[in-house]
Amino acid sequence: MIKLLILPFFAYLLGSIPWGLVLTRLFTSINIRQEGSGNIGATNVRRVAGTKLGILTLAGDVLKGAVPVWLAVSLTDSNELWAAFYLSLVAFAAFMGHLYPIYMKFKNGGKGVATAAGCFAVISPPALGVAILVFILFVCGFNRVSAASLAAAAVLPVAVWKATGSGVLTGCAAATSVFIGFRHKENIKRLLSGTEPTIWK
Questions:
Q1: Are 53 and 24 a contacting pair, CB within 8 Å?
Q2: Contact in structure between 33 and 66 (CB atoms under 8 Å)
Q3: Which of 196, 176, 7 is nearest to 98 (CA)?
Q4: Would you say the pTM of this structure is higher than 0.85?
């Protein structure tokens, strides 16, 4: 019971670790919050500090979503309704930690795509697979990570519903999608104006 109560708080604290900021401070002289888009996520890290640190940031952000949700699965019976609520709580705690990290005074968090991917890699691998396929198609078609991220987030709730039939998990996916959209509001403006940076020149 104590583990069940502690895990959502652990998920939030783990989700709050700003891997992009940590890695760029450790291995470069760059202040990632003052370079590029100013975001601490993998896309900006790759653009500003190189592919290697971008990949490491991506891995760290995915794992901080996947690890607590995997722990939640190990503590619950997946056949019980309350388990879906608990998994959603833990996943959303990790996700919100990334968006509003306590270590950065709840400001300057990432956009949540990688951490959400980590969460749903455990909750519903088939649904995440669909979202990743959509992401890849949009990357190839539009050459912009933000457009691909928004498309993947939009399809995620539908994919989760089709894969799990759980209204609770679908609700979690929908809430996650809404927050990802909100965090991309500046990207949306740049996409509409045609000024959003491309992945490849």
A1: yes
A2: no
A3: 176
A4: yes
